[in-house]
């Protein structure tokens, strides 16, 4: 049976996606590269480097320029996340974390972000999770399962004892590739591959997820 829940951060527990978008938009504007909110959708859950590759397309940049742009975008992002507070937790997030703690289910963060530790601190949920796997934990980004396998290991659990909650297609794919259960948040067009699809965590109880997983 299920002993642990691994939460993606951006798009699941909080919406830092908006800040990632604003930071990428500023960079793209400076570089004169066309970019908008719609194009940003393709970057959901995608690592920093892969996101930049999708933005620049077939434009030619040197490795040094790529590094500089990644750092510049991250600088803008860090400026923006200074405003994050516990109020930025998405509806249902804190209730579910607390319910899981009560039920003796282990919890972890599995985020591609190198800023996940900072965001988790700003959200005030450091002591609500048992482990944090972030952009520094593994080499292979999602959709590779490495990040979630790392989180499961930190929790001392087997993959099949874990559920991953994700908002990105790449994240759902990573969870399933790792032999874990997947709960997808959002439209079926995006997270339909998951074992359970929910619109968001608002009003979601642990028993609801368990019931749907055993259907
Ligand atoms: P950073 P998640 C992901 O977080 C974001 O969804 C994605 O937009 C971002 O590019 C990626 O983290 C890397 O973030 O530049 O801060 O290292 O959804 O995996 O929590
Ligand atoms: Mg996400």
Descriptive account of the structure:
The chain is an alpha/beta fold and 215 residues long. The protein has helices at residues 17-31, 37-40, 48-56, 63-81, 93-102, 116-123, 146-155, 169-177, 188-191, 206-213, and strands at residues 4-7, 106-110, 131-133, 162-166, 181-185, 196-198. It has a six-stranded parallel beta sheet with strand order 3-2-1-4-5-6, with helices on both faces. The longest helix is centred in the middle third of the chain and has 19 residues, at 63-81. The protein starts with a strand and ends with a helix. The mean pLDDT is 97. It binds 1,6-di-O-phosphono-beta-D-glucopyranose and magnesium ion. This is Beta-phosphoglucomutase.
Amount of beta strand = 5-15%
Output mean pLDDT. 97
Total beta strand runs: 6
User: What's the total helix number?
Assistant: 10
The H-and-E topology, N to C, reads as EHHHHHEHEHEHEHEH
Cα-atom Rg, whole angstroms? 17 Å
Please give the order of strands in the largest beta sheet: 3-2-1-4-5-6
Percent in helix: 40-55%
Rounded to the nearest angstrom, the distance between the terminal CA atoms is: 14 Å
Task: Please give the largest β-sheet.
Answer: 6 strands, parallel
Q: Which stretches of 5+ consecutive residues score pLDDT under 50?
A: none
Q: What shape does the CA trace take?
A: globular
């Amino acid at each position: 049976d299920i002993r642990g829940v691994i939460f993606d951060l951006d798009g699941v527990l909080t919406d830092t996606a908006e800040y990632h978008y604003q930071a990428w938009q500023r960079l793209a504007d400076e570089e004169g590269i066309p970019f908008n909110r719609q194009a940003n959708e393709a970057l959901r859950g995608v690592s920093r480097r892969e996101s930049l590759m999708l933005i620049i397309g077939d434009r030619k940049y040197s490795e040094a320029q790529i590094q500089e742009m990644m750092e510049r975008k991250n600088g803008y992002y860090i400026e923006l996340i200074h405003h994050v507070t516990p109020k930025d937790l998405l509806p249902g997030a804190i209730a579910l974390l607390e319910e899981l703690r009560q039920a003796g289910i282990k919890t972890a963060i599995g985020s591609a972000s190198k800023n996940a530790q900072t965001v988790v601190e700003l959200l005030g949920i450091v002591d609500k999770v048992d482990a944090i796997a972030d952009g520094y934990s593994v080499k292979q980004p999602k959709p590779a399962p490495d990040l979630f396998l790392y989180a499961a290991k930190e929790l001392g659990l087997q993959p099949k004892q874990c559920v991953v909650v994700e908002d990105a297609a790449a994240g759902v794919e990573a969870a399933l590739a790792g032999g874990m259960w997947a709960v997808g948040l959002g439209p079926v067009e995006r997270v339909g591959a998951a074992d359970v699809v929910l619109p968001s965590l608002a009003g979601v109880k642990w028993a609801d997820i368990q019931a749907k997983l055993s259907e």
